Protein 1
Amino acid sequence: MTREAKIWTCKIGEVPSAALPDGADAPMRDAVARAYAAVTGEEPLFIFSGWGGELDESERAVVENREPSEDHRKQRHIRDAAPDLYEALTELIALHEGEATADGVVLRARAALARADGAGQ
């Protein structure tokens, strides 16, 4: 797959869990596969889908016709202004919460430093 390849994403909802019949994934997945083939002329190589999706804060704010939370805006500004710093902070939080290993954090930090060194040359 090249960097120029495109992957289409979609979130659709919401419906109460109790309203979903058994096998509710199949008709949605089949419809997407048919539409993909009609648009691209090719069968999809993969489809990741299901009823377990969630909206992020920006998406939820749009649905609820409100501005995203101030915390979310701050995170987005940090991510956009300093992506390597944002990634490092995210890794440290994951480490603190037991969702990452120290070795993984160190490896990613070294990779970020190497990218920064390469960009400055």
Protein 2
Amino acid sequence: MPRAGANRRRTAAAGRPKQSARAAALAALGGESQRQLQDLIRRRLALPLEERMNFLRRRLPGGGSCL
């Protein structure tokens, strides 16, 4: 005869159901993506202003550029 409560889900120590492998992988991927974004922002902020803001420059027909 089966025990009472044998069909219940096993829970983690915190009382939550265990994460599936897919959910754990997605959570790890989200954390890595966030770290990469922060690293990109830090690297760009470390550049001098002229190199950081080069997307504002407009090329002039005579070969020069302006902001």
Protein 3
Amino acid sequence: MFNKALSVARTMTRAAYVEPFRNRDRTKTLLIGFAANLGYGCLSFMLNYNLAGYGLLASLSHQVMRPLFMGYLFVPLTFLFYTRVKSRVLLALLQIAAIGLFFIDTSNGTLNAFALAFVFSPFLAMHNYNYGKNTSRSNRGNEAALYAYSIIIAYSGGLFLGGLCLEQGWYNQAIVIGSLCTIAGSFFLYRPIAGRNNGAKVKSLLGWRKPSTRISFFSGLMNPLLETCMPAWMRMIGLPALAAGISMSLRPIIGLFLTPFAGWLVQKKGFKAGQLGGTALIVGWILVGVSSFLPWLLSFSLALLNTGKGLISPLEIGRWQRRRSSAAVISREIAVATGRIPSNLLGVAITFLAPALYPVLGLGFTGLFIWGSIPRRRKQARV
């Protein structure tokens, strides 16, 4: 029995960590994406933590406008730019010039959101597009799980670096370096794009009856509470910057063991992965609430929250990557951004005004995700 279990674990691990690297283009996308997401994690943490010090309005405007600028403006514009102008050098120069926007007013949440979207969105678009183009049919679930895990480990490393840089007072230097990492990522991931009529294709892919749209929308609804609002909440409860960065960087350790299982679950069970991940999130949010009275439970609650997100991400990402088109990337970003905007609006306000209700909001959004991820059976036409 033990030998059989060991054999299954070995097979799952090979499918998750070895097979995806057999494709050269996929390996290139993963490695470049890792470096760029490391810079983005550092950049994001520093902006979130810094703006939290300027009060509710600064954080709220930043968190609401950031997904709006990315999903609705800069990701579609990236594909439009690459299909019409086809010059990665010109786009890189424009992005480098946009770094200066970060330093015009460090307390302006909307301006910082615009600058972040300008700098990061081209990489986001090309990273998703390239990896989707190189996914296989036989191992798609494991490839999506590794893709999600590579983002988690890089982003979490960036969170730790962000906490360290803020502790040392290296705000300006880290902003420049983090921005240059994402700009370099979009530059090296450039590939010619022949897509046209993306507007019509996006319209056909989006729709409330489409499972992919619902899953991405509700995933976008949950993600800000786990990513952008969590550092602000930690600041509100009194955690120092370095401790917050370390707490947020626990995700890679969990993902290391979770990725093979998540890939297998998505490959074999589909929607079950999302519902199991939602259950882990429910328990995690309950423990976050209890940790207000028992602080030592915070690490366990974060572990469960990261486990839930680790199960949901491959399902959400993989359903769009299998389409292998720029229209699918745009559609996913719009669906995710549509969920992120109200979540940021409520999440940031509650984090500042009523931190005790933060886990209650997490429970509510997770319940909506579980409900939204249940497959809808089409009604059979009456004869």
